[in-house]
TrEMBL record:
Protein name: Cold-shock protein
The species this protein was found in: Cohnella lubricantis
Source organism superkingdom: Bacteria
Amino acid sequence: MSIVKILKCKNNECKAWVREEFATPGQTCPMCSGPMLRTMKHLPPLVKKVKSTSR
Ligand SMILES: [Zn+2]
């Protein structure tokens, strides 16, 4: 597992979150338009299958 910085909705009833790298300045919740909180999340590492085989 790897730790990823995310922005999480402050509303406990709302499960929305976005990766910080995809967030915009002043990011608001995509679901309830509420304020978001910077936090961390444990996520499985991204598996990159893209392996460019150059010929
Ligand atoms: Zn929300």
